[in-house]
Amino acid sequence: MSVAYDIVAQGKPAASARTEATPAARPLVLPARLLDTVAAFTHHRDIDALDQGLALSLAELAPARAVVLCKRAIDGLRRESIVRCVVDAQGAHVVDAEAVAGDPALARCMEEQQPHADVDARGLHRLFVPILHEGRALGALQLEGDAPLEGALALAEGFARIYANYITLLQESERDKLTGLYNRRTFERHLQRLLRQPPTAGVASVWLAIFDIDHFKRVNDTYGHVYGDEVILLLAQQMRASFRHDDVLFRFGGEEFVVLLAGHDEAGARGALERFRERVAQHPFPQVGHVTVSIGYARASLTDYPEMVIDRADKALYFAKQHGRNRTHGYEDLLARGALGPVAVTGSIDLF
Ligand SMILES: Nc1nc2c(ncn2[C@@H]2O[C@H](COP(=O)(O)OP(=O)(O)OP(=O)(O)O)[C@@H](O)[C@H]2O)c(=O)[nH]1
To answer: Is any ligand 1 atom within 6 A of the Cβ of residue 220?
Structure first.
């Protein structure tokens, strides 16, 4: 196994190479398996699949009993995501479906931006390696084994560098350039992930809300597009400040934004959206003054096509626009009150 470790170390400056192998022990030919593995995991265009591919590849090549990939979200504030890969009863490496809490040693590794090794209370040897990009820790890797794992350090660091480069590119392609919020192409993945996660405190609902800035054309016409863009940017900041860390924020395009909220009942979702609406209405936007948003929301369930949920929230948003703007309306509530008129109930489409 030292073959793989030493090769990755060759690309590093001598001062930071931590492998214990002497230069004479380094092979000159790259093992095809290592290249195959790197090619396979960087083939993914989906970040979840990439994360799992990294953990599985590293667990096989190290080899390790388990590999944990812990990731900070792009703004460094929002909740970390965790992928854990373990060996199953048949000896194969598989992704552990159970959510695990991040070990405090992982957080320390990200904070210090340095690798370290320890032995835990179960007697397992552990190796922690930060995933660094432009002086920032994007996340960290944790390898677990029955024997010391220092020999796998160079391999893990090499994988961390490849992963950091690649994830940065992928994340940029998923973000709106102006606001840094997710763009629309990631919406379905985030919705499915929220719908599949175990309900918190018995509340299973996921809510989708669409916001639209009221009379935004006037802002552009009066102050120009540069100020219009500034309003969009500041609105995104208000979203980040107002919603919970595990809510997922998108700019769908233009002056249209989407939020996915999980773990709320109807009143909770409405409360969170109303708080945001009021916050925006009270915020003084430089030069432009006060701006309001209209909000429509709808419940999402696993049986819905994403377009159906968007369509329902959009109907509630349209209602809010038609009834004075600077308002929040829920599709299910409007439907129950008969306020939407004789509309077909979205979701009851006959396919045949
Ligand atoms: N500055 C800026 N303006 C944008 C952007 N995307 C869309 N717009 C403008 O947003 C405005 C949207 O106008 P409308 O759809 O007519 O709606 P509105 O004026 O907001 O009115 P209501 O939605 O009915 O309250 C148009 O003037 C677009 O040019 C953007 O990225 N930057």
So the answer is: yes
Interval between CA 213 and ligand 1 midpoint (Å): 8
Residues 166-196: tens digit of each pLDDT: 988 888 888 898 998 999 988 988 898 888 7
Residue nearest to atom 24 of ligand 1 (CA): 215
pLDDT 10s digits, 264-292: 889 999 999 999 999 999 999 999 999 99
| Cα 319 to ligand 1 centre (Å) | 18
Active-site residue, 255 included:
yes
Instruction: State which CATH number among 3.40.228.10, 3.30.450.40, 3.40.50.720, 3.40.309.10 fits the domain covering 2-172.
Output: 3.30.450.40
Q: What is the pLDDT of residues 230-270, one digit of tens each?
A: 999 999 999 999 998 888 999 998 999 999 998 888 999 99
* CA pair distance 75, 174, nearest whole angstrom: 14
Determine the distance separating the centroid of ligand 1 and the alpha carbon of 241, expressed in angstroms.
Answer: 23
Query: Active-site residue among 20, 188, 255, 307?
Result: 255
Report d(CA 6, CA 17) in Å as an integer.
10
CATH fold for the domain made of 184-336 = Alpha-Beta Plaits (3.30.70)
Tokens coding 185: 């192409």
Please report the ipTM that was assigned to this predicted complex. 0.94
Q: Nearest Cα to 30, choosing from 6, 53, 12?
A: 6
